[in-house]
């Protein structure tokens, strides 16, 4: 069932924690024996890095006992102490998910240690949302491909268990980090899931098309299990440009896209010719590049509409 609003799900009276007895808590999946006390209504905000991430009522939800899960270099945008779990499912050397960027690598190694304050001193200006004081005793775990001695807060993602229970025919169907987060929330029995920052509205290299397929699979699993979920209006997730068979595809958008694509090819051709001859002026090159940038922006807007996003 899709939730139509978020505020109603953060009522304080529904968010009292469970008994202090560890037998009534829920063990964090993965290595280690840490136990997280879940609220009566098990809620989680899964936060991506798209434009709607700023719409997430993180502080309000956290105060009501809702879990907040972030990925990759979320510490650059938000106070990391508001989060209950982090996910960094990338291998070193791939340049994916910020894994090889110096400030993020330093954060991974310092999180949960007495070196964290030093990280704030060294990188605080680069990550303006970083808190100046810790304020919490227990840092959130970081789910990774495997545990690392260099990253004290790391725990291994339980991929075998999750895939066996939720993957199509038991397959490991994960094309992005959000898949891992969403699947784990389902696996652990959360019954209210809020998806912010998972917008899929820009797809220059086709990455979001691949992501969307698997994400919508796990949304379907939630829907089938009766889990309440919320997707912001601006997200293209679980949307289409038309109802197949019932509605016609916008011919206006199709024609405009063809026109823009043709103009882009012509400008690109002129730019390449100018570069090869090396006789163009700087102004001519800048004009061509500016035109390409403008056309790309217009094309992106139309493509977003084609995918069902409302901007």
Beta-strand percent range = 5-15%
Q: Could you list the spans in which at least 5 consecutive residues all have pLDDT below 50?
A: 3-9, 15-39, 130-136
Give the oligomer, counting copies of the same chain as homo and different chains as hetero. single chain
**Rg, alpha carbons:** 22 Å
State the CATH class of the largest domain.
Answer: Alpha Beta
Any overview of this molecule?
The radius of gyration is 22 Å and the shape is globular. A seven-stranded parallel beta sheet has the order 7-6-5-4-3-8-9. A two-stranded antiparallel sheet has the order 1-2. It has 311 residues and is α/β, with parallel strands linked by helices. The two termini are 24 Å apart. The protein has helices spanning 58-63, 102-110, 116-123, 159-166, 177-187, 207-225, 251-277, 282-306; strands spanning 26-27, 35-36, 43-47, 67-71, 85-88, 142-144, 154-156, 192-196, 228-230. The protein has two domains: 7-230, sialyltransferase cstii, chain A (Alpha-Beta Complex); 251-306.
Brief synopsis:
This protein is an alpha/beta fold and 311 residues long. It has 8 helices and 9 strands. The longest helix has 27 residues.
């Amino acid at each position: 069932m899709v939730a139509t609003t978020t505020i109603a799900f953060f009522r304080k009276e529904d968010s009292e924690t469970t008994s202090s007895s560890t037998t009534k808590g829920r063990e964090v999946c993965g290595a280690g024996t840490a136990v997280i006390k879940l609220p009566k209504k098990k809620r989680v905000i899964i936060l991506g890095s798209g434009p709607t991430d700023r719409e997430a009522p993180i502080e309000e939800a956290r105060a009501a006992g809702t879990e907040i899960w972030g990925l990759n270099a979320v510490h650059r945008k938000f106070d990391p102490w508001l989060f209950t779990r982090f996910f960094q499912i990338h291998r070193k050397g791939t340049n994916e998910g910020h894994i090889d960027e110096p400030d993020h690598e330093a954060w991974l190694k310092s999180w949960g240690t007495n070196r964290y304050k030093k990280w704030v001193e060294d990188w605080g200006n680069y990550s303006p949302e970083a808190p100046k004081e810790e304020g919490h005793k227990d840092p959130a775990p970081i789910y990774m491909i495997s545990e690392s001695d260099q990253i004290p807060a790391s725990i291994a993602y339980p991929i075998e268990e999750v895939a066996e229970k939720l993957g199509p025919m038991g397959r490991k169907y994960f094309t992005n980090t959000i898949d891992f987060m969403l699947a784990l929330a389902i696996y652990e029995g959360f019954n209210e899931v809020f998806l912010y920052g998972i917008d899929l509205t820009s797809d220059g290299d086709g990455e979001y098309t691949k992501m969307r397929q698997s994400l919508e699979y796990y949304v379907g699993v939630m829907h089938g299990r009766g889990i309440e979920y919320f997707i912001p209006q601006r997200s293209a997730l679980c949307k289409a440009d038309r109802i197949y068979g019932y509605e016609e595809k916008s011919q206006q958008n199709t024609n405009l896209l063809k026109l823009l694509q043709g103009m882009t090819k012509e400008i690109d051709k002129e730019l390449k010719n100018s570069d090869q001859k090396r006789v163009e002026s700087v102004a001519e090159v800048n004009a061509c590049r500016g035109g390409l940038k403008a056309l790309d922006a217009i094309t992106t807007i139309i493509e977003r509409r084609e995918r069902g996003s409302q901007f």
